[in-house]
Every structure is written in C-alpha cells, then in structure tokens.
Amino acid sequence: MEKGCFKSKIWISVLALLVAMPIFVVALSWLFPEHELWTHFSQNLLPGLISSTVILLIGVGIGVTLLGTILAYLVVMVEFPGRKWLEWALFLPFAIPAYVLAFVYLGVFDYSGYAQVWMREVLGLPGFDIRAGSWAIILTFVLVFYPYVYMMTRASFKRQKINMIEAGKLLGASPLKVFFKISLPLARPAAAAGLLVTLMETLADFGVVSLFNYDTFTTAIYSAWGDFRSIEVAAQLASLLVLVAFFLIYFEKKARGQAKYYSADVSNKKPYHATGIVGWLISLFVFGVFMLSFAMPMLQLVIWGWESAGEEWSAKYFDLIASTSILTVSAALITVAIATVLALPGRCKQGSIWLKGVIRMATLGYALPGSVMAVGLLYGINQISVINIYFGGESINHIIFGSISLLLFAYVSRFMAIAYSSIDASAQQIKPVFTQSARLLGATRLRLIWQVYLPMMTPGILAGGLLVAVDVMKELPATYLLRPFGWDTLAIQVYELSAEGLFERAAVPALIMVLFGAILMSVFQYLDKKSSKTS
What we know:
The protein is mostly helical. It has one domain: Orthogonal Bundle (MetI-like fold), CATH 1.10.3720.10. The chain has a two-stranded parallel ribbon. The longest helix has 43 residues. The chain starts with a helix and ends with a helix. Its main location: membrane. It is a multi-pass membrane protein.
C-alpha cells in the first residue's frame, strides 16, 4: 500500500506541477528586478491599486454570494409562478462575456446613451457619470458572475435531504430560520467554491476595468507590459495576484475547517409554495435579475446586430465558429479530466500536506491575466530551448510556438481552478461509508473510481466542464497571443471590432458567442436532469 501511495503521489504531483508551470515562471521574475521601474510602481501606483482592488473584491464578493445563493434557494426550494423556465434562464447570463455586457451598459447608460438622454429630456432628471466611483463596475461584475455561485449552490440545494427541511418546518421554524440553520450551512462549500472562482475571475479581468477606466492590478500589469515594455515588472505584479489568490483559497479552507457536508438524495419536491402576492413578488425579483443580466443586453445586441448584419456577416464566420468550437471542446475535456484526477478521494491524499500544496498551486493560474499567462508560457518554453541548446540540442521554439498544444496548455493552466473547485465540491460530499463498503466487498481502486466516485461526482464534473467551456470561448488575451496563424476566434473578432469603436458590428460575433454559450448550457441542463433522474 505504501508503495502504491508513493507512486500515486508522484503522478499527482507531476501533473499538478506541470499545470502550475506558468506560475513558477512568473515567480522567477523576481530574480530579474528592474529597480527604477518597480520603485515608480510601488511608490506612486501600488497603494491606489491595492485599495481599488480590495473595494472591487469586497463589493463583487458580497454581491455574487447574496444574489447567487438567494436565487438558487428560491428556484430549488420554493414553487412560484414561472419557476421552471426561470431556473434555466438564470444560467444564460454566464454566456455573455463580461466585456460585452460592459460595452452594452456603457452604450445604453453613458451620458450620451439613449437611457440618460430620455431621463434628462423626458423626466427632467440630472445626468450622471456611470464611470464615476465603483458602483457601476461592481454591478456589472455581479450581474455577469453570479451564475458561478448560482450554479454550484443550486446543485448543492438539489441534493439536500428534504426530510431535514420538513423536520424544521414541523418544529415551527420559519422559512428564514430553516434557510440559515439547515440549507445554507449544507450549501456553504459549494457557495464558497463559486465565490472563490468569482473573485479570481475578478482579479484577472482586464476588459471591463479598462472600459470603465477603473485601475486595478490587471490594468497595471498591462501598463507595465504595453507602455513600459517590462515583462519582468508585469510578471512581478501578476505574482502579487497569485499571492492574493493563494490567501483567498487559504482563507476559504480555514473558514471551513474540518467540516464536511454529505448528501445523497435528489428531490424535485418543493418544501415551500409561494402563492398570491408573495409568489408574484418572488417571480418579479427573479425575472428582474434575468432582465438586467441577460434579456436587456441581448435585446440591445440584437438591435445593433440587425442594423449591421448585412455589412459584417460573411463566410469567414464559419471558420471562426469552427475554430472556437474545436478549442472550447478540447480544452474543456482536457481540463476536466485532469481536475477529476486531482480531486478524486483517496487515502493517499489524506494528511498529505505536500499533495494539498501542489494541487492548490495548480489552481492559482486563474488569478493570472491571460496575457501574463501567455507570456509566462512563452518565456518558459524559450528558457527550455536555451538550456537544450546549451547541452547540444536544438531549439523547440519553432515546434511549440504558435501551436494548438501550447494554447491548450494555457487554457488548462488558466482554468484549472474552475473545474477543480466544482469537482472537488462534489467529491467532498461523498460519504466515507461508501468507500469503506466498496473496499470490504473487494473493489479495486479502478472499480471504486468507475462505479462509486465518478457517478457521485458527475454533477460537479458537468458543472466544471460547462464553466471551463464557456470561459474558454470568452478568453481573449491568451488566445490572441498564442493562437496558431489563421486561428481567429469569435472573441478575437469581438475585440478587434470593439477596439475600433465599431460596437454595432461587434454585436454580430457577440451574439454568436451568446448563442454558442446557450447551446452549451442547454446540453448541460439535459445532462444534469438525466443525472438527477438516475441518482
């Protein structure tokens, strides 16, 4: 057993460290400091960057946690008018890239946008600057990122035993007390996983903060690289983001402590039925979130797209769709497969500080902006070539640079946290008694994985695969820098058009991306329902 555990630890460690390679490359940037430039950044920019980033993280964290958890609880535990279609519709905002939602809201609610013009001319209200302060950017992030928490907590609420809630009701507990004392504690690991992914997504965002002229670490990273041509300072700033991500993960684990929450039942029975005015108020609230986060932006994109479709649409879009589909499916499958291996329960992982450390290291790449992840990979491959040439070999740059394999490597390293958080949340709910019973019956490790672990981890695997697929579809900087020649994607088309201020034409590829994301979520919904019926 010890020999088998040793081999298992070696393979898991190698796999995790390989995924984390760009992070180590970024960390090595501190060996080549640029003192003058770094002094300028640390003295003049760093204090403001820290405060603005902290405000953004706190605002987005509170917003997505409250909104995502409340929405998930309502659609799972409460029967109200329109619940069935709204439960699925609340997934749809995840298909809209954050930078697309940002330019739509700016186009509508900026001072010259028709919403403010109507407010001033018809209602006589004073105008406002949507870019002033942090409220608008926080609201944008909350509307586009709440599906992370919603998706994971919904899966957790659906697997809670209904008899515990019924027992609370019989004891006279109010719906709020049942929520805070029973349902919420059981769903906390899933909510924390969604929150963690959201905060790392917020840390790494560049498109939204740049459109709102809001300074964060990410904008400073782009400034160090684009304006000052210093990849070292950019990587050093990125390493601070990795450090923040590490503390976020550590804090979440510390807050959870040794608590584990298990569940097995999947029930479609609703313990609460909201009728009359209460039911319609709940329906109005849920529908309002859907309108703000998806329906209204989609309507604006459709209007812009309809006006410019004749000018923008051409046969090249078939190639863009094919390239996007191949990259999305391939990256999602590889990432989920590796994340499943890392998240599988096992006695060899219990108490192993080393394994826990390297696995956590492999999930920190989500805090790196895509551009820095790309440069880290390019820099790392180039250093390997230098070492290989030194020992009499040949450069491997021409083989790897501009290849699909390097781009997929960047996706896997960048989005491992998404897949792992979702799959690990499902793995944490597997009762130890299942493993013990299987081993007493003589089940081998492979049979235990195939017949016990994987079926019970299916909801997390499906959710993780969906999250990775949609994020890969929306990823811009890494794709732009590492894609093979001629491999343009829909995200790149949106970027190139919007960078030129052609928002109406950019609506065409943006609409295709939203449709593509909606198809992915439809597949997820079908598989999720099928999994629930067979559980």
